[in-house]
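Hey all, quick one. A colleague (J.T.) asked me to put the zinc ion job into the tracker so the inputs and the structure tokens live in one place instead of scattered across chat threads. No bug as far as I know, just bookkeeping. Sequence used:
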Amino acid sequence: MTAQSNAARPASLGPKIGETVERFELEKAWLVDPVSGREGPGEIVVVDGVLESVNWLEGDEAAGVTAAGVVVAPGFFDMHAHFREPGFEDAETVATGSAAAAHGGFTTVALMPNTQPALDEPGVLARIRAASAAGTSPVEVLAYGAVSAGRAGEQLSAMGELADAGVLGYSDDGAPVRTAKLLRSALLYAGMLGLPIVDHAEDLELTAGAEAHEGYVASVMGLAGWPSAGEVQAVSRDLSVLADALADEPRARLHLTHVSTAAALDLVRAAKKAGLPVTCDVTPHHLAFTDEWIAGSRRWAWEAIGADGKALDAWADGALTAGPYDTALRVNPPLSTAEDAAACLAALVDGTADAVATDHAPHTVVDKEVEFGKASNGISGIETALGILLALVDAGKLPLARAVAALTTGPAAVCAASDATRGTSAARPRGLVEGAAADLVVFDRSDGWVVTPESLLSKGKNSPLLGRELPGRVLLTIAGGRLAYEDPDADDSAN
Ligand SMILES: [Zn+2]
């Protein structure tokens, strides 16, 4: 028999965004199921929005089907994103953010509460849910409540009411939980409610006025330095407060988001080993970009490190190919060295990092078209996360199955442990489960796409990857049985 390789594209589905997928069959694809831990050649059939069958292929039938072609994985879960609504709809809305998420392969997102007003009481969550329900996207929009009222760092928010309303946890993201005392109270109360505190670990005294990671690049570029201790000190505080709070409330749980430095990841690794209930995530941008990008380098972080594990010198290597001071690179925590990026990767591979979260932070042009140090922090990253992880897979640095797990079962395990998430897609097993609502992404590793302002569905065009081709074109995203995204270039000859 002739083996049909899995680089063939599926035909266009027909339905519009939000409509139930009546029938979709994919023959000879590479399936990745992070729940069973299985990956390999297979075929799937979706009928009336339900994943009717998952058929693993063997022998002759499997011939020619490789992980380098069309891949099917469970829909991704982004546990850290900013959709800016309410308050900053010029930068993003729930509708545009949801469209961008689906383009990135995400079917569930967890939004941070730094909206205006802040999500510190159930009314704001209701507004976000109403915005989601009013749109056509089937992407499930979940959210965290603020730790403190108005995110002001003084008094706790309406935590109990927020739990009843269904938040996933609490965070003052954009800023750290301001004091150790407030964090302790928050851990106790959230623990009682069965929810985690998600902290953006930053020592604001150490980072005041800082523009870029403190080191060689910042010195050469004349940018005020952000010392690694700005993160390490805060992680250390958080872990000691957690250890203390556990004595009073054994259900206290801490999640550290966007951890970016080797020393902070070492602290998390040691705390996990000691049995503390702490989890963490790393971002695609801290895995892939370094501070030398601010000087104009565009080589991946893993290409900027020598065999001795030491960062190379972009100036000496002639690696500066782009203009300096691209404000799309200003982010909190700041891009660091290739050594720190390698530590993020090592943490992802060894499980110290439970998840990859995008910290999708769209901004308007106005907020970014200023001096580097005055630009708003953040990268529009929900659409480029998969491509960055696949670049790591292509480079032989990250197993495909681990990349998929970090976008599915990893974040779900952090967010789904509580009663509040029951009934939401956060609580669904993120595997290829027969008989469940189809929730999956289909992407083609034999094809790429170029990141441009037009190809990004997010309102935020603040990506340092503009003009660059990324591997792994998303062909189709189905969320809860409904069409969430379809490649506009899909072959529609079948319809
Ligand atoms: Zn943050």
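Adding what we noticed when we looked at it: The longest helix spans residues 229-248. The mean pLDDT is 94.
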